[in-house]
Amino acid sequence: MKFADLAKISIVDDDESIRGATRALLRSVGYEVKTFASAELFLESEAFRETDCLVLDIRMPGIDGLELQHRLNEKESRVPIIFVTAHDDRSHRRIAMDGGAAGFFRKPFEANAFVAAVQAALWSGRSSEAHSEPEETEALLAVRAVPSLRSHHLGEEV
What we know:
Helix 7 packs antiparallel against helix 8. The termini are far apart. This protein has a five-stranded parallel sheet with strand order 2-1-3-4-5, sandwiched between helices. It has helices at 3-6, 16-28, 39-44, 47-50, 65-74, 90-98, 111-127, 133-144, and strands at 8-12, 32-36, 53-57, 81-85, 103-106, 109-110, 153-154. By secondary structure, the chain is an alpha/beta fold. The protein is 47% helix and 18% strand. It has a single domain, classed as Rossmann fold (3-Layer(aba) Sandwich), CATH 3.40.50.
């Protein structure tokens, strides 16, 4: 079984087009992906307990991304979070990174770099768990085998 096949990614973003494009991108490299239009819907779902990596918008109605990160940190959640935002505010970036974010991308983001960040976040999260040597080797190969998507930016009209 491939490393990507093992990972469950949740995307929380109020922008339907970003959710759809990000879901398609991550599914194209083998991840199981669930999407949510709000932090509240994510917290009410089973995915909340099963997510291996969380892709999270910052500005959303209701509970925003930084508040969700804070709540997860209070529960001592170890799920890596990668933020995506159309509003790259320095203070938001600092708060997210100080809160332990695994990545921070401004929309539109470059697809290949984003996939690599997700893979790195998953690898760092899994490397702290006990895994057999073959799984670790497959994970490293999966990180190196990201298809080239350099000309594709998510969030831009094509």
